[in-house]
Amino acid sequence: MAAPRAAALGPEPGSSTQTSHRLLAYSDALLSIIATVMILPVAHTKIHPDQKLGESVQQLLLAKIAVYLMTFLIVTVAWAAHVRLFQVIEHIDDVLALLNLACMMIITFLPYTFSLMASFPGIPFGIFLFSVCAVVIGLIQAVIVAYGFYHPHLLNQQIQESENQNFYKRHILKIILRGPVLCFLAAIFSFFFIPLSYVLLGLVIVFPHLTRVITWCKNKVLGRRGEEEEHHSLETFTFYLSEPLSKERVEAFSDGVYAIVATLLILDICEDNVPDPREVEEKFHGSLLEALSEYGPNYLAYFGSFVTIGLLWFVHHSLFLYVTKATRLMGLLNILSLAFIGGLPLAYQLTSEFAEKSHNEIEAIQVSCVITFFASIFQFAIWTTALLNEEETLHPFARYGGKEHAFMFAKLALYPCVSLGAFFLTCLLSEFSTAIFHLMQIVIPFAFLALRIFVRISLTAIKSVMSLSRRKVVLLEEEEACLSPNETLS
Amino acid sequence: MAAPRAAALGPEPGSSTQTSHRLLAYSDALLSIIATVMILPVAHTKIHPDQKLGESVQQLLLAKIAVYLMTFLIVTVAWAAHVRLFQVIEHIDDVLALLNLACMMIITFLPYTFSLMASFPGIPFGIFLFSVCAVVIGLIQAVIVAYGFYHPHLLNQQIQESENQNFYKRHILKIILRGPVLCFLAAIFSFFFIPLSYVLLGLVIVFPHLTRVITWCKNKVLGRRGEEEEHHSLETFTFYLSEPLSKERVEAFSDGVYAIVATLLILDICEDNVPDPREVEEKFHGSLLEALSEYGPNYLAYFGSFVTIGLLWFVHHSLFLYVTKATRLMGLLNILSLAFIGGLPLAYQLTSEFAEKSHNEIEAIQVSCVITFFASIFQFAIWTTALLNEEETLHPFARYGGKEHAFMFAKLALYPCVSLGAFFLTCLLSEFSTAIFHLMQIVIPFAFLALRIFVRISLTAIKSVMSLSRRKVVLLEEEEACLSPNETLS
């Protein structure tokens, strides 16, 4: 997908048509920022040092974390619909670019409506506003589809040549409008019976995956035959529409999330951790260094989260070098991984806020370990899912038995193992929890640097052990072979 | 540049080499966020409504705006060096990826050192810390260069095949290390004589352009001959090194800046403009709508800045569709344009903070107009610069006399004209300044939609006028021609 799109850069002669490459990159950047924005209110929640973290997490943060997760998932649903839409419409012109910008503007407003919902769960206005925004987004995207099919030279090559354009049009409209229709119902019900509205909103997030699971289950129950028949009858039409997510856009969206999450903490540090000149004069007798040493833990938290996120990006980057196609399930796992990564700065900030060796600090460190574990285990799951269908989704090198297979395995397994290990170590040796945590952070980058050497050594070790045992077997067989003729002779 | 890079996606067989495409995209995203981060402290400066904006701007904001501009320019200098570096090293492996991440981590810390400098201009620690960071960045990049030249298969094809690799190595090291060397001197002088350190830092920003201007002036004074000779003797080596900035990366960096700036205000709105449930109960008798209507101007500011930035992105996007190469001067103009765009959210926020028709409000609106004007006039300047060298830098359509020339001109001229017009109108009709400003914001998107039609109408009008006048000329000539034979006869 990448090569022809990049090769076609520059306007085509004789028309105002443009490639959509840069429009999509800009949309991805906007969407990834918006998806992760709502972690900021969570991170800015001040926890009193005397409070116990366990309680405060439950009472104070839960609503905000729920808002963050809901926003993240809803924005990724909007992103997925956007990807589908611009797989059908491959070229743009000025009108489409402006319509897309209008669509983006309303999407960026969604997090605010979520904040309203979370603050006033009993008042219908928040959910009503959200639903109205979603309906408007759906309408704009429907206009984009109508415009695209009215000017067929903007469409994907295959659809342009197809005789059944109406089928494609209906299909893409169905994908785009199912969310807004649910939201429209939610808007109506918000005035009568609010809980139903929330259920409908939840349905918007789950819907694409739900239909998928239902058809899968149905096929399992009814046997494979039904699916094959259906598949066959629609083959000519669905070839394109069931194509997996564009790998290029999955990468662009992930890069945006990693970049904004990695720099979130520096925003806070630049604003809050510059000491007041007057205070320095009075409290620290003019010594800036002394004043800054108070913020030491904050710097540590920043560098810790940057290193962790940077290395997780590095693993993601290594993995997607060998991925040739991203299936839907891989996309879902990627989004789950990203959702946990968005929580990392928060976790690191927590670790810097408490007195050393307090009960809160150990809990904060354990929360960090758990978040890191989930973020990395979902990355590992992407690879496992890809391996299940390796012929289609993976480069030969990374497949089972491939040249880089063992190395990729080691790369992806490093973070889950280390974070899990650190978690259990802090449980056992709670006195040294901080030391363990910081040691882990310092060791991991070097572990990545030395990983290739380590993998090679262990592979040769395994091979030599294997060959030794095999040689033994061979020797035994030879002995038997030597013996057997004698035996048969005797 | 884009096509081969994209086409070579996926690892090359038989080595751990990877294309640098995604690493660069991620670096661009990080750098663009960091470049614009420091506008946040400016935007969060609370101005008391009773204060006069003129005074408060001068006293309170000046230092922060200076920090923002310095950070922006220094980060773009680092970005330019990064672009140069990865034009030489075209392929990466794991070690280079990790080294690059380490480099990014230290770059993201630079804004904080600037904040320290601005808060404590008399204490050497801030400038010392900054210089140390810059030196470390330089050292890491030098290690990257050394590693790249030690593994020549990572280098650019042309350098790989060249027999004069050492020349390239020295040249790229010179580009990368001149900043850090100046910073090293600044670090030493910071303990003796601080003003000199600041001068040295200023030099880091100006240096690349200064050398350029000096050689240009020298050539002008000494005549062209000197330059040609020099050019000739170095031609075989400098062909590659004087290549303009990679257009792809200019676009990626610009997209990042536009995206983060467009969403900056929603960050604030999501955090600060969600009313407190208790307050709603007490002050507004439970009416959420009434409570929200208090924040009306903030929403207006958000949508206003999003629309303006979105449309400026749209103009930038249209322009770069027709740009085939970005020269250094175009890169500089682009960065200046981006620096003003970073100030837009601040300007729009100011307009929402003051009582209607107060003296402050008119000033805030005028500041917005001025910032918009400069952001858009620099975009216009990019095009003008490109036209000066149109054979190399522009697609034939956008060149003088090309098919899209008039339309591009109209697109680029719309914002400068409108913002300048709005500025003078607010000066003349100060009573209606708000109305004028909002009208401008509402009209412009539709103006862009209708621009193509408008340009066509005016072009045909001009043509018909031209042809009319030409016909008159022709008629006169014919008359003369008719007369002259007679005259000659008579």
UniProtKB/TrEMBL annotation, chains A, B:
<keyword id="KW-0406">Ion transport</keyword>
<feature type="transmembrane region" description="Helical">
    <location>
        <begin position="409"/>
        <end position="429"/>
    </location>
</feature>
<dbReference type="GO" id="GO:0005267">
    <property type="term" value="F:potassium channel activity"/>
</dbReference>
<dbReference type="GO" id="GO:0015252">
    <property type="term" value="F:proton channel activity"/>
</dbReference>
<keyword id="KW-0630">Potassium</keyword>
<keyword id="KW-0407">Ion channel</keyword>
<feature type="transmembrane region" description="Helical">
    <location>
        <begin position="435"/>
        <end position="455"/>
    </location>
</feature>
<feature type="transmembrane region" description="Helical">
    <location>
        <begin position="65"/>
        <end position="83"/>
    </location>
</feature>
<keyword id="KW-0812">Transmembrane</keyword>
<feature type="transmembrane region" description="Helical">
    <location>
        <begin position="95"/>
        <end position="114"/>
    </location>
</feature>
<keyword id="KW-1133">Transmembrane helix</keyword>
<feature type="transmembrane region" description="Helical">
    <location>
        <begin position="23"/>
        <end position="45"/>
    </location>
</feature>
<keyword id="KW-0633">Potassium transport</keyword>
<feature type="transmembrane region" description="Helical">
    <location>
        <begin position="329"/>
        <end position="348"/>
    </location>
</feature>
<dbReference type="Pfam" id="PF06736">
    <property type="entry name" value="TMEM175"/>
</dbReference>
<feature type="transmembrane region" description="Helical">
    <location>
        <begin position="364"/>
        <end position="388"/>
    </location>
</feature>
<keyword id="KW-0472">Membrane</keyword>
<protein>
    <recommendedName>
        <fullName>Endosomal/lysosomal proton channel TMEM175</fullName>
    </recommendedName>
</protein>
<keyword id="KW-0813">Transport</keyword>
<comment type="similarity">
    <text>Belongs to the TMEM175 family.</text>
</comment>
<feature type="transmembrane region" description="Helical">
    <location>
        <begin position="126"/>
        <end position="150"/>
    </location>
</feature>
<feature type="transmembrane region" description="Helical">
    <location>
        <begin position="179"/>
        <end position="206"/>
    </location>
</feature>
<dbReference type="GO" id="GO:0016020">
    <property type="term" value="C:membrane"/>
</dbReference>
<keyword id="KW-0631">Potassium channel</keyword>
<dbReference type="InterPro" id="IPR010617">
    <property type="entry name" value="TMEM175-like"/>
</dbReference>
<feature type="transmembrane region" description="Helical">
    <location>
        <begin position="299"/>
        <end position="322"/>
    </location>
</feature>
